Backbone:
């Protein structure tokens, strides 16, 4: 039975990945911080099938101990300070967790499990204000946030570990991916949560910043399969994962409100103060290499993704009030 080790297992991607790998017959161990209190709701249904071990990407010793105890065949490094907005307020923390946390994880793998295959969660935010559209594996990075800069550093360190130390490191340059397990601080989930509250009569409006910002949104439950496929490929490489279609925040609002029979323009208020210090006008990925060489094709449409999140928030809010 292959053994997978997941950092960030308590997050959106980590919980979906754990479910996927269990379905493939893996033994799954997840790294959790002592202070983490979020994992029960995301791991409901699989908690008794995964092993959780305490550790922190800020502490190399705990990573070494966790890997020595598990000796995994595959390592999926998903842990990060992943909220772009917060990275402007906490750039040093973001650099330490998202950037140097990756360096520590790579160092631990090199020392303890050098034969393990390693997945690095890179990000489309590394492209920043892109020099070409769509973006593929050869597009230069121009990050426009501390998060994007930290991810670019982590990406380059992962590539360096592959080239200098011979580690089997695959970097997934994933474009935005969402789902019902997305944190409430992210704009997509803020919108679907607000739609549910408005539909149920618990709120009247939502305040947003930049409605023109465009992203290539896919489903997290789909994209974890791409992570796994990258580590099954015989040669480690960098891979863009995206749908190839972009939508604006306004379009997300339109789809979410329309799903419950409402007009988004009656309920969305714009506040320029909510804009980021520097934002990205548009990102859209060219995932042709992943499609052709890994055989990965996203399954969930934009409208179905939005609807699934609205429905989940409707059910959650209604259940909490019973």
Residues:
């Amino acid at each position: 039975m292959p053994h997978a080790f997941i950092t960030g297992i308590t997050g959106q991607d980590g919980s979906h990945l754990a479910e996927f790998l269990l379905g493939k017959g893996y033994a799954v161990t997840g790294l959790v911080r002592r202070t983490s209190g979020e994992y029960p709701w995301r791991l409901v249904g699989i908690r008794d099938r995964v092993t959780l071990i305490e550790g922190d990407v800020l502490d190399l010793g705990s990573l070494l101990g966790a890997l020595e105890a598990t000796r995994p065949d595959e390592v999926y490094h998903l842990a990060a300070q992943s909220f772009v907005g917060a990275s402007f307020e906490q750039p040093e923390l973001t650099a330490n967790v998202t950037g140097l946390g990756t360096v520590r994880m790579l160092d631990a793998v090199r020392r303890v499990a050098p034969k393990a295959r390693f997945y690095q969660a890179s990000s489309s935010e590394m492209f920043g204000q892109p020099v070409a559209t769509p973006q593929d594996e050869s597009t230069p990075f121009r990050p426009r946030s501390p998060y994007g800069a930290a991810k670019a550093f982590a990406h380059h360190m992962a590539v360096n570990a592959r080239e200098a130390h011979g580690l089997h490191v695959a970097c997934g340059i994933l474009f935005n991916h969402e789902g019902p397990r997305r944190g409430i601080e992210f704009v997509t989930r803020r919108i679907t949560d607000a739609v549910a509250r408005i539909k149920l009569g618990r709120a009247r409006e939502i305040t947003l910043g930049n409605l023109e910002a465009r992203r290539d949104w896919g489903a997290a439950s789909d994209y974890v399969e791409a992570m796994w496929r990258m580590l099954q490929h015989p040669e480690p490489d960098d891979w863009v994962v995206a749908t190839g279609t972009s939508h604006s925040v306004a379009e997300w609002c339109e789809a979410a409100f329309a799903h419950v029979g409402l007009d988004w323009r009656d309920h969305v208020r714009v506040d320029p103060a909510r804009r980021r210090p520097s934002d990205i006008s548009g990102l859209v990925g060219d995932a042709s290499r992943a499609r052709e060489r890994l055989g990965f094709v996203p399954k969930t449409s934009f409208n179905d993704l939005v609807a699934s999140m609205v429905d989940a928030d409707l059910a959650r809010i209604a259940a909490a009030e019973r």
Summary: The mean pLDDT is 95. The two ends are 43 Å apart (CA to CA). The longest helix spans residues 91-112. Residues 222 and 299 are 7 Å apart (CA to CA).
